[in-house]
Amino acid sequence: MSFWQNRPTLVTGATGLLGSHLVEELLARGAAVTCLVRDHVPRSRLITTGMVDRVNVVRGELEDFQLLLRAVNEHEIESVFHLGAQTIVGTAKRSALSTFEANVRGTWNLLEACHECAGLVGRVVVASSDKAYGEHETLPYTEEAPLVGRFPYDVSKSCTDLISFSYHHSYRVPVAVTRCGNLYGAGDLNWNRLVPGTIRSVLLGERPVVRSDGSFVRDYFYVRDAVDAYLLLAERMDDSSLHGEAFNFGTETPMSVLELVDLILRLMDRTDLEPDVRNEASHEILRQYLDCTKARERLGWRPSRSLEEGLREAIDWYRGEIAAPGPSAG
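Structure (tokenized):
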């Protein structure tokens, strides 16, 4: 029988890219899933695939502590995946307060609800980010690197991690933290993100837009590999030595923005479309990528797809969503 069979499981951020894929896999493994949903997002995979009709839906915000307490208590939640957050760097720059409310207050609210329902909750996986580290000269980042976020989104994630560790060390809440590279994959409709924005531009026969100068370096991590990582970590958390720990997950193949755009153009046979480099990005870290040795050694985890394999799967999905004109004649 699956580890997840009939296991009461709460997923926050279920309408997002990672959340929708995680819910899909949890349902496939037989979990009893409850989703916290703030906004109705008609094009989310949670909605378009009909998964929303197979889960319990709690409508509300992470900022509402009593709602979270009721959700955990009344649905007798045993496992929690806290993915809900304001995840867009540009949005955080425009409105730091709303980002801090969702990402910081939302995290302590959820962990406090888990603390008050300690007799129910057996594992909490909190989604952080490589941005929690802030900027360091030493690369790649290991889990021992200090959390020194400076810009609003980065700071919100540094706080997320510290609050999570505090609840473990102070109250023994069984929590572990994930720090992933930049996620991409089927269902991501945030066109200001590099991978979906580039693929959409190419499918529409347009030059892909690069907001930065193209030299920023990141990890790019396929969403289905991320789901596998989250589930493996949660399943291993019967081992209390994993509580209060953070784990990096990624492909360990860092790439500059322009290198990634060029790769997508080659995979889509549209190298004729020269990137539109606007050099407008600010409040972002220039070079950032992860060392995943700890996940390999402690969890036996490795990604199952290369960057090219993941991009090909993503491109195939977007082709089905967006009409794709061919190259112009002449």
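Residues 326-330 have pLDDT under 50 and may be disordered. The chain has eleven helices and 13 strands.
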